[in-house]
Amino acid sequence: MAEEEIVHPIESEDSKPSDPTKKILASVALVAILAGVGTGFLVFKTRSAQGVNQTAAAKPGENTPPAPQLDSKTFRDSAIGTVEKNDLTVKNAQGTHKLIRDGGPSQTVYLISSVVDLDKYIGKKVTVWGETFSSPNVGWLMDVGRVEEK
């Protein structure tokens, strides 16, 4: 029996035949990564530039939405009273706030608004203008569009 050589010569990386599939896959992966980074950079720059242009063009006070104007067609209903925060833990509660009016609980107006921050008027006597909505739970539910302090 012939003796086998126990120690084999070490082949260097340079002497191994190259695998073209590995090179192609590595190239494709590198191109995909660079394309993703480039696209992300362009989107970021475009959105940043739009924000800068809008901010630079805006005058002081223009970043806030304009206060609704008193429009008799849009805000047909009005009421006078004192604004309170509504207890939304009560069953069937409606409205984030309520307007306490003379005449007792039956005269209370329950208020909601997407354009007026009603928290600013808590505890103050005001006139509110808005649109009345029907409600099975409360006598008067109003979407407020304008508030004026008394």
Give an overview in words.
The protein has 150 residues and is α+β, with helices and mostly antiparallel strands. The protein folds into 2 domains: 39 residues; 73 residues, OB fold (Dihydrolipoamide Acetyltransferase, E2P) (Beta Barrel). The protein is built from 1 helix and 5 strands. The chain has a 5-stranded mixed beta barrel with strand order 1-2-3-5-4. A hairpin with an 8-residue loop joins β2 and β3. The longest helix is centred in the N-terminal third of the chain and has 38 residues. The protein is rod-shaped, with a radius of gyration of 35 Å. The protein starts with 19 loop residues before the first helix and ends with a strand. 15% of the residues are buried. About 5% of the residues have low confidence.
- Helix-strand pattern: HEEEEE
- Classify the oligomer: single chain
Helix content: 25-40%
Q: What's the overall average pLDDT, rounded?
A: 80
Low-confidence stretches: 52-58
Would you identify the CATH architecture of the largest domain? Beta Barrel
Strand-helix topology:
Elements: H1 20-57, E1 77-85, E2 97-100, E3 109-112, E4 125-133, E5 141-149
Parallel strand pairs: 3-5
Antiparallel strand pairs: 1-2, 1-4, 2-3, 4-5
Give the gist of this structure.
This protein has one helix at 20-57, and strands at residues 77-85, 97-100, 109-112, 125-133, 141-149.
What would the keywords be for this entry?
2 domains; 150 residues; 23% strand; 25% helix; OB fold (Dihydrolipoamide Acetyltransferase, E2P); alpha+beta; 5-stranded mixed barrel
